[in-house]
Amino acid sequence: MNVLKECKYFLSLATWQHAIYGLKHAFKSFGYSCAGLWTAIHREESFRQEIIWGCIHLGATWLLPLGLSIQLFMTMLWVIMMSMELMNSAIEAVVDKASPEWSELAKRAKDMASAAVFINIFGIVVTWAILLVMLFF
Fold it and tell me: Catalytic residue at 104?
């Protein structure tokens, strides 16, 4: 009997309308994400610099004989770094909008967001140092 109820629910119009709404929402979300990337590329110097460093990082990652698991790990480190930079830029924009005058809390928020990016970059540099020592020595 429960299976019959589940089938009726699955075939109901409301379920299909909800699924269609979900697809529309997913496409809108994709558009918002593309707009965010476009904004970061055109307005954030640090994001553009990290794209250039990322090309070097990814090129070396996939050209050196590191093994697939390490290559995937290094690729994900770069993806995480770019995500952190986007979050840093978003936090800075919100803080600038909410607190145009100088504020200790605003400074702390911006400094901590920047520190998160720094820690990520530092981790990538240390990881590269370890990999290169293991590879060549």
Answer: no
If asked whether residues 28 and 94 sit together in one domain, one would say no
Q: Which pLDDT tens digit goes with each residue over 10-46?
A: 566 666 677 778 788 888 999 999 999 999 999 999 9
Euclidean distance between CA atoms 17 and 7, whole angstroms: 16
If asked whether residues 60 and 10 sit together in one domain, one would say no
Distance CA 28, CA 34 (A): 10
Q: Is the pTM value of this prediction over 0.85?
A: no
The two three-digit tokens of residue 14, written as one number: 């409301």
CA distances (Å), origin 102, targets 13, 99, 107, 116: 54, 7, 8, 22
Q: Of 6, 50, 85, 92, which is the active-site residue? A: 85
- Do 30 and 50 belong together in one domain? no
Structural domain containing residue 107? 44-136
Fill in the DSSP letter of residue 120.
H
**Whose structure tokens read 């005058």?**
101
